[in-house]
Amino acid sequence: MKKNNSFVFQGSKLKLARELKLWTISKLGEKLGVSHQIVSDWENNKKSPTFEKLIEIEKMLGFPRRFYFSTVENIAPDNELLFFRKGAAVAVKYQKQVEQSGILFSIVANIVENYVNLPSFSFPSYSLRNIEFSQIDFEKISKITMCLREEYNLGIGPISNMTLLVEKMGIRVHFEDLSSAKIDALTLFVNKQPYIIINNQRISSVRIRFNIAHELGHILLHSSYTKTETSNSSNNKRIEMEANHFAGSLLLPEEGFVLDLTSTNMNHLLQLKKHWKVSLQAIIFNGDHSGLISSRQTLFLRQQISRNKWRLHEPFDDEIPVEYPTLFNKAIQYVKNEKPECMKEIVSEVGLSENQIFELFQYEEDKYEVRSNNHLKLV
After folding, report:
1. Where would I find the HTH cro/C1-type domain in this sequence (predicted)?
2. Structural domain contains residue 154
3. Cβ(162)–Cβ(152) under 8 Å?
4. Domain membership of residue 47 as a residue range
5. How many domains does the chain have?
6. Tens digits of per-residue pLDDT, 327-369?
7. Which of 166, 175, 270, 290 could be disulfide-bonded to 200 (CB atoms 3.0-4.6 Å)?
8. Strongest mean pLDDT among 7-16, 188-197, 295-304
């Protein structure tokens, strides 16, 4: 394939590596024995570090020197639009860390896609493409989730694998152990390609499934909004409510859920949790919201959850398996099996070691069988 052999220091890569490590410009400068201004000049491509400083940077930040000279330039989210699923008062440095995690994943994923054909994303006809913010009726959102279920032949029952569903839609998913447990997920677009970054640190499978469904809601409902629209606190609160409703409606469609809700006692609801693979609290919320569980019973169930200290850790959280992404693991396995010389080209273009790429994709040798009818094909 065609290559760009330019050897120019990319300041944005230094910023990426620094923010992934949660370091400020001043801290990196202090470690290197240079001023804040010099590091700022490097990151803004006004100057380049000396070879000696590059050696130090490599050791401190953990990225090979060649990473800072790879051909990808001006990496940033489209329209600076980011959808965070996070708790209140999360420090900016942690938000920057997850954003850079998404950027790094997009850099590597984009290069891998130059060698392997992967499912492409396009907005379905039932997605909303409003540029200006306006409240979306919850009934309309529920209809959109049913359109999605119909398109992918999901029926009205549980979704067996939420991660696999969004990967089939052409959305790239990455699981990361983030430093802040207050950040659940992030959605960003890079070159019109959506990426979902999930924090899988100490988080149950049912919560991850809901987080992925929530982020999918942002992609299909809100991704045409401007940063100004989403930054408005009132708008953002409503946007989050809509994404939550989307997730609940997608994972627990009322038409199917009502057939299983033959009892509202706790033991039965716990069995429904295993069957639908959603949290007990989500089941109770949806049952209350749809009128299937009375307000009195809802209060009683929530009191039981509090007494049993289940708010943060519910029964069966450790038994329902996490649905890890597999798309890029299969892609890497395919390249290694079918054309191993391409793996060397990928390593060269990315600027990371092969092991670092494997670690990014949580790749395990020989874990994924490559079949002749697989949709993966070498470019």
Report:
1. 14-67
2. yes
3. no
4. 1-74
5. 3
6. 999 999 999 888 889 999 999 999 999 999 999 988 876 554 5
7. 175
8. 295-304
Q: Taking all residues of the chain, what is their mean pLDDT, rounded to a whole number? A: 90
Neighbour count for residue 143 (Cβ, 10 Å): 13
CB count within 10 Å of CB 105 equals: 23
Per-residue pLDDT at 90: 78
Spatial contact of 329 and 363, defined as CB atoms under 8 Å apart:
yes
Which distant-in-sequence residues (6+ apart) come within 8 Å of 355 by Cβ? Answer: none
Q: Which amino acid is at 60?
A: M
Inside any domain, residue 222? yes
Residues 208, 144: one domain?
Answer: yes
Of 132-136, 218-222, 334-338, the one with minimum mean pLDDT is 334-338
Residues 162 and 55 in one domain: no
Rounded Cα distance, 286 and 281, in Å: 9
Do both 247 and 179 map to the same domain?
yes
Cα separation values, 342 from 12, 111, 116, 345, Å:
26, 11, 10, 5
Residue 193's DSSP bridge partners are 190
CA distance 294 to 299: 9
Q: 172 in helix, strand or coil?
A: strand
